[in-house]
Input
Amino acid sequence: MRARAYVPALPVASVLLLAGCSGGDGSAKGTAAVDAPPMRLVAYDSCDDLLNGLRTETAKRVTPWGLDGPALLEKVPDGAMPAPESANGQASKAVPQEHSRTNVHEAGADEPDLVKTDGRRIVTISRNKLQVIDPVTRKVAHRLDLPVRGPGMYPGGGDSQLLMSGDRVLVMTRQSPRGIDATERPGMAKPVPMRSQTRLTLVDLAGTPKVMGSMTSETEFVDARQTGSVARIVVTSRPRIDFPVDPHQGQPEQKAVERNRQLVRQAPLSAWLPKFEVRNGADATSYTMPCDQVSRPASYTGTTMLSVLSVDLAKGLGDPDPAGVVADGQTVYGTGASLYVTGTPPQAVAWGRMTPKPVEQRTDIHKFDVRGQGRPRYVASGSVQGDLLNQYSLSEHAGHLRVATTTMPMTPPGAPDSPDSPNSPDSPTRSTAAPRSESTVRVLAQQGAKLTTVGEIGGLGKGERIYSVRFIGPKGYVVTFRQVDPLYVLDLSDPAKPRSTGELKITGYSAYLHPTADGKLLGVGQDADTKGRTLGTQVSLFDVAGAPKRVDTFRLPESSSATEFDPHAFLYWAKSGLTVIPVSRHTTGGGEALVLKVGAQGIDKAGTVSHPDAGYEVPVQIQRSLVVGDTLWTISSEGARATSVTTLDDQGWLRF
Output
């Protein structure tokens, strides 16, 4: 049977889920590019139809190495749960103090981070342990061994992140499979490609912390958002098909491709549907993605499946109620009511041949309704030209989704606009020919099962790319950069006719933009000379009430800040204007927390906070800052430092 498409004119309620297994008009200033075609929700008539579609699309994309390149060996995973270890002392039962939270994009959607606090305790990860700090006694009240491996074994928690609700903490870990010694025989698994794993560990903090349960799957953790006690966790997975370790086995490449295609055509549906193993104490239960919960856009590759899981921290780990889409997932943006996941589809290139045509980037956008506590509902998809910078390139406002992208066509090596060509925007010897890159802000509306462009403004930063974006209400702020930093101010109050209301060109750029209490805009990035050479950390305060202008600037030469690529590292305490930015010195490699006071008239340096050297070759870097009561806490992989918010006097050092 053929897949059937939902008609866009149908009400949304008619297209929220798949059939079960039982049966722009705007001001496109300066852009001549045609928007990418809108995507459609497509349902399958049966599980057999789902399997046939996945086999067909996946078989088109195999190589002599299968889907993942040369196969590696991995050990059989060890499911044992380490016994919890706690330090002496009890967490404070005092009333929560006034405290800062993780710096998030939207107030209604909490984001995973290395550190969480509820004002009664501070919870972080270091040295593969959960560290629980009592901010009143300024001591580490508890330590708990976490049942994770791979990157999480290194100081700082590796790829582990936290969400918190009440007395529960959910630890999300990207686990890398372990390699196997070729001489080791006991317990050896047969040769299979190394696959990433995601582990969710639920910890109870009431009294002495203890592991309540865990969930593991052969998936890649992407991101998560939490509203109330319910977390929505986004993971991706690849088909579990065991291709031969030797790609050729003495055969020509095309023969190897045909052999692998045949393996794909014989693979069962279970190879594509992700499985989740939940352990609660001695009990273990496996869950598999139901085939009637898998959707797909009209165009897909079959090589990646995107899953959105649901975990209620208050209830514990159980059936993750996954909703699946046969698509890739790279960037997550949530509002509390809606969850958007975007991905850049791989380009289809015939094996052994390279297309001579430039490749236009495209970003696919998938929208889920996550209101309530049940399974997320996949409601719409859309597609736009260009690439996103990060989640701040997306913003939902008054029923519309604003999307900022940069289009920089990719071409084969040696082509007129390729990176190694003299005409390339990235070539130091390029000619005066106009570069082709530019940025666009589009406004999308949900029309049935489609996210359709209803307005756009393009031509932003020709020959440059986006370095930061911030949407605040009906306004948008976009920073592009190559040699100078144009800060564009956009009026998006009319979704069909977005327009630019101002532009400010200065040297350097802002990589992160944050609104201040008095309506100004704070930018953190890099100072630069007139040729675009970066000089060091730059913090700028902009007045954007009218024509944009820079009110004040603070510069720290020969340094950079983690805030430039990770907004969670940024702290702004609106009550006093306290602003904390972790910085790294280029000359020494040392790190410190730069403490500023940001007011209506300017930026003043209050001081710095540093952590003692741990004796490693790599200097200690401060990762996070937060306020609890009248104390500024700075966190690194080595420990936590308590500092007076008002005087920056040292109040204690806690080594992890």
